[in-house]
Amino acid sequence: TFTITVTNTGNVDLSNVAVSDPLAPGCDATIGDLAVGASTSYDCTVAGVTAAFTNVATVTGEAPGGEDVTDEDDAAVEIAAISVLKVANATSASAGDQVTYTYTVTNTGTVTLTDISLADDKLGAITLATTTLAPGESTTGTATATVASTDLPGPLVNVATVTGEGPGGEQVTDQDDATVPLVAVLPVTTTPPATLPATGLDTDQAAGLGLILISLGMLALAAALFGGAGRLRLAPDGIGGRLRANLLPLSPTERMAVHRHRVAAWWVRRRSRSLSRRIR
Description:
Elements: E1 2-7, E2 14-20, E3 29-34, E4 39-44, E5 53-62, E6 68-77, E7 82-88, E8 98-107, E9 114-120, E10 124-126, E11 138-146, E12 156-165, E13 171-180, H1 203-225, E14 230-236, E15 243-249, H2 252-279
Antiparallel strand pairs: 1-4, 2-3, 2-5, 5-6, 7-8, 8-11, 9-10, 9-12, 12-13, 14-15
């Protein structure tokens, strides 16, 4: 709000007196005649001011001889303004995680602010390093929240509100929020390994069967290479369900095959010894 006062400081009456104010059109006024030494005043208001500026009002009048007279005056417009910026240290979180918020409060006006306070709708009052800020100064505060399972599925949103007071007692305020997406952690389940069909054998019996199977292969090889007079048969021995390998008589055809293997093995050994003597 501006108060404009126009005074006739000359020694002749003035006519067609008018005031113009380009930055505050609401302050334009037509006064008309103004006698010597007379004054007139009025108030005018500029709404929606968001930045400081200097307002200049100009008055003009006409003397009896037709000459124009003029004068101007200015008034600096100061504003009280404040801002808060809230930032989370996490881009996502899960239940049980901690999220730390940093709050930065700045005096964005042109006058000193006092009695500055900050509150978070989820975390309550936030302590600031100072509660008085000159124009352009900033102060900070921090707070930490633990994500609860009841916050899921999210996102986690909370709002910070800052207030301050200008020199004339005017209240200024600002808000900012921070949003943190929440991620649900799925429970880990363990699937037991697949089991082989039951064999009816206990642990010792199963181990013994494995050893018998290995032994069978070695016995068969020995019978073929070294002329054993039998073939193998696997049969239960009637004692605790155990298995026994038995050597059975060979047929004439099987004995002939074994004989040929023995002859071949003898010839290979003989040939090898002969070659060895020649090399030495």
